[in-house]
Write a structure and sequence with these properties.
By secondary structure, the chain is an alpha+beta fold. The protein contains two helices and two strands; from the N terminus they run H-E-H-E. Strands 1-2 form a two-stranded parallel ribbon. Strand 1, helix 2 and strand 2 form a beta-alpha-beta unit. The longest helix has 21 residues. It is globular. About 10% of the residues are buried.
Length: about 100
């Protein structure tokens, strides 16, 4: 059994990538955002142990329930996109916010 001191330190890095959608839309990632996600996928390919937390938001307009649904749908769209580019879904954590 390894002692606490023998364990490798956890490395935490914060990478911020904005993915833009049209107002109240969830199905269309912009070309600009696809380019940003392509760069992020490159990190995943380079760092095999790298895990990512995807945090999706909607604006403050509309009801809380509507905004949470939009944020959740956008997160799923981004997840599906990066998985389609070869990122294993188990390497992603998800959080949707208003």
């Amino acid at each position: 059994m390894k002692k606490q001191a023998d364990k490798a330190p956890e490395v935490v890095a914060f990478l911020f990538y904005k993915v833009h959608f049209a107002f109240a839309k969830t199905k269309c990632i912009t070309d600009y955002s696809k380019a940003s996600l392509g760069e992020l996928v490159g990190y995943w390919e380079h760092f095999s142990g790298f895990k990512m937390e995807l945090i999706s938001h909607a604006d403050y307009l509309g009801s809380t329930d509507e905004n949470l649904k939009i944020a959740s749908d956008r997160e799923k769209m981004v997840t599906d996109y990066v998985v389609s580019k070869g990122v294993a879904a188990v390497r992603l954590n998800h959080l949707s916010k208003e």
